[in-house]
Amino acid sequence: MNKKIFSLSCAILCSFIWGTAFVAQDMGMDFIGPYTFTFGRMFLGFLALLPFFFIFERKEVQKSNLDLKRILVYLLFLGFLLFGGNALQQISLLYTDVANSAVFTIFYVLIVPIVSYFLFSKKIHWSVWPAVLICLIGGLFLSELNNLLVRYGDILVIIGAFFWAFHIVFISKFLKIFNFPITIAMSQCLFGAMFSFIPAIIYENISVANILMETNELLYAGVLSSGIAYLLQTYSQQNLSPAPVAIIFSLEGVFAGIFAWIILDQHLNEFKIFGIILILCAVIFSQLSPMYDKKRYG
Questions:
Q1: Which of 27, 66, 200, 262 has the highest count of CB atoms within 10 angstroms of its CB?
Q2: Residue 265 is assigned to a structural domain of this protein
Q3: Per-residue model confidence as pLDDT tens digits over 185-242
């Protein structure tokens, strides 16, 4: 299979898992707090990837002559970004609904190309900018323009979008010096869980009995959305630039809206459906346009 097609497939599947996980995240805080949920899902993600690390990458990592201190700093930083994005997103669901949380999360689509261009001088194909604009317009329609209330939860998600944006950018940079997707995905989940455990201990009453009552939601958000999806994200960013891949990841807002309608009965009106169509068009446009201008594509 063509490497770019493989990465594109990984990005779309990753977006689907992330989008559907919003439902599990929303349903998973009946008996535990947001920090405990974040800790649980990321630790499960680490455990899910651990066997794959030992089978496929452990020997290769041991053979590589790399600066381990530098690698550790990168992994800690990625874990911190992962913790920040996940925790803010999870807390937001206490104050806002799934659709709003998913929509404002995809604001990283706007932030990623700006960070890539201004901080790292990354060449960006011109098609990314109109695609970003279309995505944002679609996101506004998904959030209902006739009833747009910027609540506390929405503000938290927008702040979290910066964490997701920097995470996407630095994953791409890190892969250039440490191309071990399983190790990256596994380690960032472990460090993200460690960062989450601290506020969980301080602010929440962690109870094993309560955690077990959220088993299904934690397994879905942990094994699939944290473990498998973050691995898919890493594979997708091996052959796709940060700005275009961020636009593909924005499909998570579409999937979240659809499954919130199906499972949580959060109705999709004509405005939200139009927003979904706009985002889909932006994703297709951002991927097809560079094919006609390969020499200038970054």
A1: 200
A2: no
A3: 999 999 999 999 999 999 999 999 999 999 999 999 999 999 999 999 999 999 888 8
Residue whose pair of structure tokens reads 């706009």 in the numeric block: 278
User: Residue 139 domain-assigned?
Assistant: no
**pLDDT tens for each residue of 147-184:** 555 467 888 998 999 999 999 999 999 999 999 999 99
